[in-house]
Fold this protein.
Amino acid sequence: MLGTLVNIATVLVGGIIGLIVHGRLPESYRRIAFQGLGLVTLMLGMSMALKTQNAVILILSILLGALTGQALNLEERLESSVEWVRKKFVSSSESTFTEGAITAFMLFCMGSLTIIGALEEGMGKSSDLLLAKAVMDGFASVALAAALGVGVLFSVVPLLIYQGGWTLVGYLLQDLLPDLVTSEISAVGGIILLGLGLGLLDLKKIPLLNMLPALLYAVGLALLWPYLGF
């Protein structure tokens, strides 16, 4: 868990720095930093999505995951949970709290480094990928906190659960996971990042939290695909 713990620390430090300049940075500077993050997120999402080894698995995972998330109303439920946290632990009624927490979580957790790095660390190989991710997330959290406020700091809780969960999967399964599984999980994450990038650029608001079940479908379909005879 070394990589995840370091990752949490860099997000907290970067977020605190962002909060210090939050009220001092002119709106035009915050906007351009946000737009820069949006463009980079689009690039990362595209590069991840194009690495899929099976486009059918990718399409089915996204469609089934989105329909499942919509049926479960995940977006509204998770946003309500974040809003409850704000009311419980944050004295101010900061309007961007929920957006900051969710945007930071999606940006920090949907990248291929999260999944591959956590699996490698869990398998006892190396923490190098997660440590590199920690540095990048630290810088990103500065810009996010400067634009969206204290909600970014609270993203470390789902980050610990999600990234730590993949580390546990790597520990339990060791080398049993085929490359197809990790590549399709990363590709699905790339599609979600593309949607996040569109939101950061104010081009299109997509209920991305409803698409999170797609990650589970990617695992299941990738594991079953060799036995389906296609």
Q: What stands out?
A: The chain has a mean pLDDT of 85. The CA atoms of residues 25 and 37 lie 16 Å apart. The chain is about 75% helix and 0% strand.
